Amino acid sequence: MLSLAYVYSKLLKKIRGNSIVLSCIHDTSKIESGSTVVNSTVSRYSFCGYDCSILNCDIGAFCSIASRVSIGGVRHPTEFVSTSPVFLSHKDSVKAKFASHKYLPVVRTAVGNDVWIGEGVFVKAGITIGDGAVIGMGAVVTKDVAPYSIVAGNPARLIRFRFDNDVVEALLEMKWWNFSDSELCRLGASFNDPRALLRAEGFL
User: How many structural domains compose the chain?
Assistant: First the structure.
């Protein structure tokens, strides 16, 4: 039986709500409370955990994003004399302005389909995470991630690929994440055996 303290803490976590601005979230997807999503898209059947920050990002279908994940961000002008926004034209946390130089580049980040991002991951703006990739907990991702690869660490490095190369190529050709719900219901029972699924559908 759940304790009253657990139920209360869970309720407090939920009622904070989320902040979704200038973004398109598919009806079948879920953004948990405490998370901020700005100028981004999230495709079908994807979810984002608690206390995430997602900025200028396109997220594919069937993605699993754990809590406390940060994806994307804004650049500061390292080529200027100062990186402080008090010399820039846009509004920021500090109200003071000593100049109004225009500098607010939008760098988009791409997360493929069926990507799993572990808790506490930081993803640098402007990179691409390939379909089927797995990002280990606490990783700092500074470079593009290949499809169906598993990466971890700071900076994130390749650990291994999820499947043999022929299976990876077949899955990328199949693009099952584009299938209709009825097709996925028909095929779902075989999702625990990639080779059997791909052979049955003529991709191997």
Answer: 2
